[in-house]
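Homework help board

Subject: predicted structure for assignment chain

Our instructor gave us this sequence and asked us to write out the predicted structure in token form, then describe one feature. I got the tokens but I'm not sure how to describe them. Can anyone check?
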Amino acid sequence: MLGYFNHYFVTALSTRGFTREANVVLGVYLTQLTAFLLVSLKNPGIMTRSTEFNKVDSQQRYCQQCQVVQSSRDQHCEMCEVCIRGLDHHCIWTGKCIGQDNQYSFYAILVMTCLEMVLLIILALLVI
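My token output:
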């Protein structure tokens, strides 16, 4: 939906002589799309099986389902059925867990979406 709105808005801007502003909106949208693809395609930090388990360390715990040793930030995702390093949440929009390895790309999506919405509102007020 937002992609269609961007296409319509960029076309409307460029036909009214706002080509530089249209290029800025398009650049922000392409950066957002790139960050989305990075999150969707990147491994979130899926943990592999490990045999070492130090029972003395109170910061570690053992996941019976995945048979891995977890630190205090690692968690088991019930939707994906795997343990993720630094699990933040399971994102329904990307269909993946947001973990240690793809967290900054996810933050880039959020920042670019907010920036895009602010730009679109400002430019909509300028065009009207």
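Reply (TA_rk): Your tokens look well-formed. For the description, you could write something like this. Strands lie at 61-63, 68-70, 75-77, 82-84, 89-91, 96-98. That's the kind of observation they're looking for.
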